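ok trying this again, last paste got cut off
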Amino acid sequence: MNIETEDFLSHYGVKGQQWGVRKKSSGRSSSTSVTKAKAKQLTDDELRTAVQRLRLEKEYVQISKELNGSSPVDSFVKKHSAQAINMAMSSITTAIVGAAVAKVLKKSPGK
């Protein structure tokens, strides 16, 4: 058997690391520290303008959601209301027809 070593992919993992266990993070995300570094480089006016812009964008999103009625609850109700109504009407109809049939059977002459 002649097997070339170039055909193999080997991985030895991290020494001492167990399956399914992640390394603990330092508790500080890199994006947070980058944002803080950027904020320190801005002047007060630039920072004030940036914060005002972010607040306006957030308010715009909230107002748009309110106007469109696209909350998660609304979309869930729209999606499942027809199915719930059909199930309710089916069970009501079954109960009414069952009661009517039982009533007719009681009134009909016996065997």
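PB: full thing came through this time. The CA atoms of residues 54 and 60 lie 10 Å apart.
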